[in-house]
Design brief:
Blueprint lengths: L6 H10 L3 E5 L3 H13 L4 E6 H7 L1 H15 L3 E8 L2 H9 L4 E4 L6 H17 L3 E6 L3 E4 L2 E3 L12 H8 L3 E4 L4 E2 L14 H10 L5 E3 L7 H9 L12 H9 L2 E6 L1 H17 L6 H24 L7
Parallel strand pairs: 1-2, 1-11, 2-3, 3-4, 4-5, 5-8, 6-9, 8-10, 10-11
Antiparallel strand pairs: 6-7
Helix pairs in contact: 2-4, 2-12, 5-6, 9-11, 10-12, 11-12
The chain binds glyceraldehyde-3-phosphate, 1,3-dihydroxyacetonephosphate (13P) and zinc ion (ZN).
Length: about 300
């Protein structure tokens, strides 16, 4: 089975009231942990690569690792560029075999976002690749870009029909209160999502797949484990799993998760090295770390996404 686009996955997810997990990948152990969990649970899957991950691991290495995962698991996997910020980056991923790209023009003003996104869509569609656009701006850190609370903004539902119609995007990321990274809410603040905005977007764009970025739950036991074994993370709050589940039952078809994988992997490595201080073979700590990734993905598929068993 070759890599697939997300078109069929999203169509079924929309109708079935579930979402597809889009997990960020940087190396072999992360790819193996994610794909082993998805294969065991027969879950459709999106693996996504950020510009930073591509710089870190190299396009060809990531491509070959993902191809190996497709061969090993037989799963339909969509390979997606996360937060592409230029036409050139999107083109390079399309030419290099990705089946989906995000063009994140949300940092530009509306008209420039439309023009840039439409340009990427034209090239992508001519090459059989699908495109995710973004309207509204999420708070938080991704790569070297930090968006402050003051610069973040919810998606304006009044813009979505015009944006989708003029750009031709296949899915749309919206801002309803999620944010990137581990620190999504201030200590003591109650997590909240603007389900009213999601509902209005869904009414204006019937049957259209919506994407949620910044959707890690920052599960407290992993932060506690990091801190128990020498870390010093401040209090971190994520998006409660039941809110994400609710979004998945609505128009949200793709849920992006990176921070929860980072926390699970780091917590596992810290614990292993603290308990086995004489170990120096990377396999000794990367094996449980890979298992921690697998367990986290299995948890997401069951508790949040609802996509177990959706691969025939
Ligand atoms: O949304 C961003 C993802 O968490 C990727 O993060 O740019 O540090 O690889 P990164
Ligand atoms: P988290 O930082 O919440 O995992 O979000 C990841 C993301 O949106 C990747 O695009
Ligand atoms: Zn994101």
């Amino acid at each position: 089975m070759p890599l697939v686009t997300s078109t069929e996955m999203f169509r079924k997810a929309y109708e079935g009231g579930y979402a597809i997990g889009a997990f960020n990948v940087n190396n072999m152990e992360i790819i193996q942990g994610i794909t082993e969990a998805a294969a065991e649970l027969r879950a459709p899957l999106i693996l996504q690569v950020s510009a930073g991950a591509r710089k870190y691991a190299n396009h060809t290495y990531l491509m070959k690792l993902v191809e190996a995962a497709v061969e090993e698991t037989g799963l339909p996997i969509c390979l997606h560029l996360d937060h592409g910020d230029t036409f050139e980056l999107c083109k390079s991923c399309i030419d290099g075999g990705f089946t989906s790209v995000m063009i994140d023009g949300s940092h530009h003003d509306y008209e420039d976002n439309v023009a840039l996104t439409a340009k990427v869509v034209e090239y992508a569609h001519a090459h059989g690749v699908v495109v995710e656009g973004e309207l509204g701006r999420l708070e938080g850190v991704e790569d070297d870009v930090k968006v402050s609370a003051a610069d973040a903004s919810y998606t304006d539902p009044a813009q979505v029909e015009d944006f989708v119609q003029r750009t031709g995007v296949d899915s749309l990321a919206i801002a309803i209160g999620t944010s990137h990274g581990a620190y999504k809410f201030k200590p003591g603040q109650k997590p909240q999502l603007r389900f009213d905005i999601l509902q209005e977007v869904a009414q204006r764009l019937p049957q259209f797949p919506i994407v949620l970025h910044g959707a890690s739950s920052v599960i407290p036991e992993f932060v506690a484990q990091i801190n128990q074994y020498g870390g010093s993370m401040p209090d971190a709050i994520g998006i409660p799993e039941e809110m994400l589940r609710q979004a998945a039952e609505m128009a949200v078809c793709k849920i992006n998760i990176d921070s929860d994988l980072r926390l699970a992997m780091t917590a596992s490595i810290r614990k292993h090295l603290a308990e086995h201080p004489a170990d120096f073979d990377p396999r000794q700590y990367l094996k449980p770390a890979r298992q921690a990734i697998k367990d986290m993905v299995a948890r997401k598929i069951s508790n949040v996404l609802g996509c177990a068993g959706k691969v025939e």
